[in-house]
Amino acid sequence: MVLILGVTASGKGRLAFGLAKSVGAEIISIDSMKVYRRMDVGTAKPPKEARAALKYHLIDVVEPSDSFSVGAFLELAYKAIEQIKSRKKPIIAVGGTALYIKALLYGLFEGPGTNEQIRAELRARAQAEGLAQLHRELTKIDPVAADRISPNDSKRIIRALEVYKTTGKPISSLQKQFNAKKPVHDWTIVGLRREKTDANNRINRRVKKMIAAGLVDEVRSLLAEEKPLSPQARCAIGYAEIIDYLSGQIGLENATELIKKNTRRLAKNQRTWFKTFKNVHWLDIEPEEPPEKILDRTKTLLSGLFT
Question: Are 213 and 236 in contact (CB under 8 A)?
Fold first, then answer.
């Protein structure tokens, strides 16, 4: 059981495919947006050719109008693990959604129970004052959590503030206690690490390719569907900015630059999360290093695992 992680656009998807093909493995996607059907370009799903060649799990499992949670992910992931094991095949998990990776490694962090009154008050404040104000408030009381949570992630911002108001303790301190647990499954973790400038350049190039590949038309088509996009799908990076463009709020060039900026911020948050993960075998990748060499280095690292 190998888990490959890395920031967005680091090359982990291509590595997972190459490794899975060479050892006859099946792939589990750990991505909160690749679960949505017809959200293909903006989520950088594996090419159709790759998905025809290998068995992928947890891609295209829900409609864009549906909500999706870490609990739902974990339930499907555990089912996939058991199915793959029953076929006696190796498992390659790959992704960059840190919260889902942590859940896959250690189980679900529940935290204290919900307080509907506090939650309702926070939702009302988000509507009246704006989500940015709540994120600033979270930065003051729990800078660690605020650094990990996107300023656009209303659900997690509200939950973090709710936990603090309920317990008087930052959610990050409670999660730190949870992190001491032993992993649920026996994963070997490989991390791809690139120099920040290289990572940012790759992000910028990927966004440019997404626009050229028809991201605007994809979003336009999704908005035309009978059922509206779920709040989670609407706020996805790449989709939120193009929705603003299609509604006339910003131009396409500004939307494209915002996608780049927000994706770079996501990568920063991922790096922060990944620093907390234990027992990661990091591979430092050179800017122009060929995928074949990265695969060979990974095989060397994992030498003997599949024998």
Answer: no
